[in-house]
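hi!! sorry for the late reply, been swamped w classes. u asked for the two structures so here they r. pasted raw, havent cleaned anything up. first the sequence of the first protein and right below it the tokens
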Amino acid sequence: MAEVKFEEAIKKLENLVEELESGDLSLDESLVKYEEGVKLVRLCQKKLEQARKKIEILVKTEDGKVKTEPFDEEDSQKKR
């Protein structure tokens, strides 16, 4: 699959879901669409994971300086 942007993949997934929910596809067509959807979901998950790894938060140290730290998902969930 060629490089697809996250937003494009989501839009394609939305279109696939609409097609599958329409009930107008044959079983074979539905299977092909489903397989395409699975590939797009995996692509989106991969892109989200890559983005998550890039996220950094700025933290002010005790001496007033600002430093960066890797994003900690668990700490973020606790603060909500």
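now the second protein. again sequence first, tokens right under
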Amino acid sequence: MKYELEVFDRIISGDLSPFADGICERTKYNNALKQKHELCYNYVIATFKTSKQKVELIDKKIVSTLHPFVNSEITPQQNLFQVADIENIAPNAFKELKLNRDKIVHISYSRQPHKTIVYFKAIRDCNDIPCNEAKYYYYNDLLREATEIIKTNIKQNVFKSDSAHTIEEYIYKNQSALFSLSYRLMKLICPKNKKDIYNTKIEFTDIDILCLTYIYLEELLRFIEKNYFKYIDVNIQVPYRSELINAYDIPEKLETVKPALLSSNISKELLKIIFVPFLKLSAFGIEEKITYQQLSYLNIYISSFYDFISVHTPESITDENILQLVKELNYNPVEMFTFIIDRIISKAEPHESLTDKIDFYYQCLKIVNQINCKTPQSYNSNLPSLKHQIIGWLEEEINYLTKKLQLQSQKQPNLFSQQDKIKLHSGLSVAQLAYFFKLQVDAGIITHKNQRDIFRHIADNYQTSKVHDISAESVGSKYYNIESSTINQLKDSIIIILNLINKKP
């Protein structure tokens, strides 16, 4: 199978034929352009300052119809401009603009207060294009054609695929290859600002060609995003000029939400924590790199705040209703968890007796357990959900205070009468044990709701070949943070179990 991205790969590697010999003979690129374009033109956009006394040229811009950015450089309203007759243009205007009257094929103009903008369309001979400019246009033709071929091939291969799984694998492969090439290109270009890549090129350097290559790669990424969104790899970074940003109306929502929160009665500490996602969205593409999964969550986050703001005045926005919202949104950074726990602890301090504190924490636990999350996604996918973080902390605190209360009400136990508890020796590691129990919970085999009890059960009743005394904290950490090696090793053990089940008695 032919490598579809070969043109892009070879441009990045610097060895693209037919002009990879390092000889910059202008005729090579000019002849290549003439084969593809029978005619090419220059647009000359001239701005004249008009007054009663005189007409003065204040700005002139020239852009070729071969330039990839020509459509963005030509005013969209140009077709609405009045058509001018060449005889009505003063001869000195042609002289000042260095234009040949015989090559002008169209003139249009627009009169505005104190100035007049005139568009000249002039025939341009491909042989007269300087070498570096011709080279730039040559690569633009090459990249544009390669891009269209790749789009067609993607459509055909998806159409011929016999299953969603096959399509997903194919889209994953292409998306990953495009992202890899884009990453290599960005390291070569090293722009001070990512927006510089999209500026109109007038020097036509080799770096400009690399910028052009990046733009076409990004166009292919956006093509996949637009047409095959349900098959994409959500862990791939979103292209800088992704259409999803505007499709989600994120800029408009940010303009509404940020000022409303800044003028509210929220504490400065909480405001600083909840503002982080807004800053990420504001800086997207310039400083921030966001994956599709992160963008999906951030869209839910900003949209929920936008809906919240629409029914609340700034004066009615408080820490309490904001905290309720972030819990429903599963906004789970460590800073948010710490802020909530500190707040719970401060509210628990007035309760002097252990019984009252335990009762207070149980009330908090009941409220948190009854929270309905708006999304299964989370801000940080590497951490437990905010709800489970709070529940885990409350359960541990209740367990500690309950044991402390029991010790105060009971006599000191006779340590010499205690027998050593027998622990089952497991051939699994601690990480594999934790994941094995998690699978049983997810499958509904274990229906116990308190996950901390599960961690303590494993710690109290199991040992491994390397660890005799397993800590509940270690089990909890490995329960939430599962490594791929752990999954693969446990998968082999489960396959052995399935093979044993399938054997006849």
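hope this helps!! also noticed smth abt the second:
Confidence is low (pLDDT under 50) at residues 17-23.
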